[in-house]
Amino acid sequence: MPSVEVDQLNFETSSIFALLWNLCRTHLPPEVILDVDEFLDRENMARMGGGMERGADGKVPATGKYVIGVGVDEDLDQPTTFHEVEMSPPSGVAALNYCHAGHTEQQPHKYAFSWTTCQTGGPEKGGLFYISNFGICIAPASNTLVVWQPRHVHGTSLQDRQVNNDPDSSQAGIAIVTPSQLPNVWHKYWDKKWSHEMAAAEIYDHQFDDEDDST
Is residue 116 within 8 Å of 99, Cβ to Cβ? Predict the structure, then answer.
């Protein structure tokens, strides 16, 4: 893929995560946001889609710009750009019809954030989210935010999409999650001990190392 297309994809991806993060900052309890803020400040990590230049205080910037409305219906307004706003934490995933048995994960901050952007077929189609430590079951629905601690056993029920390849069952969303090895990788990259390619390979090759499958 040409670099200009990669750059555009990266920008659009960071925009949707920035939107999620700013919604979280608006609606969630302060102690939840503080947990992530303290992690980012402690590790001095660049944000997703943010700048990389150190300021006078030696910190990388927490703010940048993002756009919403990319690829929307032509009858709607033009995309809106937000300037000098808080950018998302540096790591996240996007998933379509995600399904996983009960498991735990380690990450360098307490909370994770999942936003189901689209769900069709209703909860009877599966894909319910369970937090087993507390006996919590969350039915899937579009525009639903879930905040949980990955160290607690969590997982999903099977979806008809996986069992019967049901075309009427679909679930999509994004999540802000951080591999436990990311701070170490970041510092080696920031100190120029590792190249961009080496850092990326370390994350991709070990992205499931923090996972502890549970029954």
Answer: no
Residue found by looking up tokens 């402690």 in the block: 42
**Where does 28-151 have alpha helices with state H?**
30-43
Q: Cβ contacts of residue 78 below 8 Å, gap of 6+? A: 69
Most distant CA atoms of the chain, gap in Å? 57
> Rounded to 10 degrees, what is the CA torsion of 6, 11, 13, 15?
-170
Question: What's the confidence (pLDDT) of residue 213?
Answer: 44
**pLDDT tens digits for range 100-117:** 999 999 999 999 999 999
Give residue-wise pLDDT tens across range 41-56.
999 999 999 888 888 8
Where are the domains positioned within the chain? 1-70+79-89, 93-176
Question: For the domain bounded by 93-176, which CATH number is listed?
Answer: 2.60.120.620
Would you put residue 131 in left (φ > 0), alpha (ψ -120 to 50) or beta? beta
Of 160, 156, 153, 186, the C-alpha closest to 173 is 156
Q: Is 4 helix (H, G, I), strand (E, B) or coil?
A: helix
Contact 24, 113 (CB under 8 A): yes
- Spans in the chain with pLDDT lower than 70: 1-2, 70-77, 206-215
Q: Classify residue 15 by burial, with Cβ atoms within 10 Å: 0-12, 13-18, 19+.
A: buried
Distance CA 147, CA 145 (A): 7
